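Expect sequence, tokenised fold; for instance:
***
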Amino acid sequence: VYLAAQIGAGRLVLHEGHNSYWKLDRRAARQAAVEGLGQVLHIARQVGVTAALENTNYGKFAMYDTWQEWVALADAVSPGFPLVLDTGHAYLAGWDIPAVIRALSGRIAQIHVHDTGGQADDHLLPGQGVIDWPGIAQALRQTGCPAALILESGPHASIEEVGSGKRWIEELLIAPRLASPSGL
């Protein structure tokens, strides 16, 4: 939090953690996350840092299953706590990403754009996996969702691949959103 304040970061993305400690049940893990995130958020507000909560839970250590439970956890930390929708994590959790965007468009501060082959958090470039990008583009266009779109490429992506991913986002997700009647 202090480093984010020192460098003037526009937003600090927080993860809620995972239920990987065998002595905690999901309820206890969620409560521990709420308490810890609340402390971090308190410090962030004191030093003028804007924080947002990313959906990171999927798989056997998940503390929640639905996007509604994610929102409830965020609201337990602080009502209206801004959200960061990670497309790969959402897909792996079985969420209908366009429906999440439609339901939460005004609350989503960022969307982490990357794809998955469907089994792991691959961080593939968008369009190289199984995520419903036309559906996401339509939901963004319909809602006028103002979220910042952040390309999350894998660690082995070349500069050319990252540039291609950036152009893909601009053409499929940003340009149609700007051209829509509810555009940004």
